[in-house]
Automatic annotation (TrEMBL):
Domain of life: Bacteria
Pfam family, one: YceG
Enzyme class, broadest EC rank: lyase
Gene3D superfamilies named in the record: Classic Zinc Finger (3.30.160.60)
Protein name (database record): Endolytic murein transglycosylase
Site (Important for catalytic activity): E222
Matching InterPro entries: MLTG-like
EC code(s) of this entry: 4.2.2.29
Annotated function: Functions as a peptidoglycan terminase that cleaves nascent peptidoglycan strands endolytically to terminate their elongation.
Record keywords: Cell inner membrane, Cell membrane, Cell wall biogenesis/degradation, Lyase, Membrane, Transmembrane, Transmembrane helix
Family membership noted in the UniProt record: Belongs to the transglycosylase MltG family.
C-alpha cells in the first residue's frame, strides 16, 4: 500500500510538472514587458502560462537555476505562439529582448514634458505632434494640444489636455506613431480614472471626475510620499467644503507657464492668474500635471482627517494642522530649521 501510494504521488507530481512547465497554451504570439523589480513569480503567476501558483512555485524552483523571486532584466520580450511555461522562462532567462522604444513618463511632469519626450524618443514616427525643435514653449504645447485632441477625438478643456495621460514606463515597437502612443497613454489614464470614480468615497466636493483629476494633479505636485497623499487630499477637500481657498504653490507655478524661473516671488503670489489658488476660489480650470494612479486614488479617497493646513518639515515630509495657530507654529519651526541648515552649509564652506 505504501509503495502504491508513493508511486501515485510520483505520478501526480509528474503530471503537475508536465502541465505546469511543458504543456502548451492557447496564447497567440505576444510581447511581454518586464519592468524594474519584476520577478518570475510576480510576472507569471496568475497568468495564462501557468495553472497553479503552488505548482508553479514548486516546479519552477526545481527547473530554474535562479530563485523564482529573483528580479528579471528589464526589457521587452517576444513570446512565441502557443508557448509553454518552459519556453516563456527560457526566453526570459536567455535575455533575448526585442528592440523597442522606451517611453518613460514621470508622474508630476506636465503634458508639455510628455509631448517633448515622445517627439524626442528614437524610433517614434511623428505624425500628430509638431516636429522636433530646439525650443519648445508652452504656446507650442498648447498648439500640440489642439492637434492631439483632433487626432484622438478628445474634447479640449480650456485649450488644455493636461493630466489626461497616464504616467508610466511604456515600450513600443520601432516605427510606432506618436498618435498610437498618445492613444495608449490616454486610454490608460481614462481607465484608471473611471475605475477609481466608481469606487469613490461618498459626498466629495467634485462636480465630476474631471475635477477629481484636477485634485489628483495638485496632490501629485504637493507630496511624493505615498503615506501622505490621502492626508494632503483631506486638507484640500476640507478647504473646499468650507469655501476656503486652496492656496497651493504648485498652482502658482503652473499659471506662470514659461515665466517660472525656479522661484516664487511675492508678486507671483499676488498675481491673479487662472490657476493661482491664492487668488481664485475652488479648483483651477485644468489639472496642473500628470497624476499617478496613487494620487487619483487619494483624491477620491481622502483620509478621515480634519486638518486644514500643512507645511513642509524640511526632511521631505509635512506637518498637518487643524488650526491657523498650529499652522503658524509649524511654519515658524520650518523656517528655523531652514535657517539652521543654511548656517551649517555656510560654516562648512569656509
Amino acid at each position: 500500500m505504501v509503495l502504491l501510494f508513493i508511486m501515485g504521488v510520483m505520478v501526480l507530481l509528474g503530471v503537475i510538472f508536465y502541465t505546469t512547465i511543458f504543456a502548451k497554451t492557447d496564447q497567440d504570439a505576444q510581447i511581454l514587458t518586464v519592468k524594474k523589480g519584476d520577478t518570475y513569480h510576480g510576472l507569471l503567476v496568475n497568468n495564462a502560462w501557468q495553472r497553479s501558483a503552488f505548482a508553479f512555485d514548486a516546479v519552477a524552483k526545481l527547473y530554474l537555476k535562479a530563485c523564482v523571486h529573483t528580479p528579471l532584466q528589464e526589457g521587452v520580450y517576444q513570446i512565441p505562439k502557443h508557448a509553454s511555461l518552459k519556453q516563456v522562462i527560457d526566453v526570459l532567462t536567455q535575455g533575448v529582448k526585442v528592440q523597442m522604444i522606451k517611453v518613460q513618463i514621470i508622474e508630476g511632469k506636465t503634458v508639455k514634458d510628455l509631448y517633448r519626450t515622445i517627439k524626442n524618443a528614437e524610433g517614434v514616427v511623428v505624425e500628430v505632434l509638431t516636429p522636433r525643435a530646439d525650443g519648445y514653449s508652452w504656446a507650442d504645447a498648447m498648439r500640440d494640444n489642439e492637434r492631439v485632441a483632433a487626432a484622438l477625438g478628445i474634447t479640449l478643456v480650456n485649450g488644455n489636455l493636461e493630466g489626461q495621460f497616464a504616467p508610466d514606463t511604456y515600450f513600443f515597437e520601432h516605427g510606432t506613431s506618436d498618435k498610437k502612443i498618445l492613444q495608449k497613454l490616454y486610454d490608460s489614464q481614462q481607465k484608471i480614472l473611471n475605475e477609481a470614480w466608481k469606487k469613490r468615497t461618498e459626498n466629495l466636493p467634485y462636480q465630476d471626475k474631471y475635477e477629481a483629476l484636477i485634485m489628483a494633479s495638485i496632490i501629485e505636485k504637493e507630496t511624493g510620499i505615498s503615506d501622505e497623499r490621502r492626508r494632503v487630499s483631506s486638507v484640500f477637500v476640507n478647504r473646499l467644503r468650507k469655501n476656503m481657498r486652496l492656496q497651493t504653490d504648485p498652482t502658482i507655478i503652473y499659471g506662470l507657464f514659461d515665466r517660472y524661473d525656479g522661484k516664487i516671488y511675492r508678486s507671483n503670489i499676488n498675481e491673479k492668474t487662472d490657476y493661482n489658488t491664492y487668488q481664485i476660489n475652488g479648483l483651477p480650470p485644468t489639472p496642473i500635471a500628470l497624476p499617478s494612479k496613487a494620487s487619483i486614488e487619494a483624491a477620491l479617497h481622502p483620509a478621515d482627517d480634519d486638518a486644514l493646513y500643512f507645511v513642509a518639515t524640511g526632511d521631505g515630509g509635512h506637518q498637518f494642522s487643524r488650526t491657523l495657530d498650529e499652522h503658524n507654529q509649524a511654519v515658524a519651526r520650518y523656517r528655523a530649521a531652514m535657517a539652521s541648515k543654511k548656517t551649517s552649509v555656510s560654516k562648512s564652506t569656509h
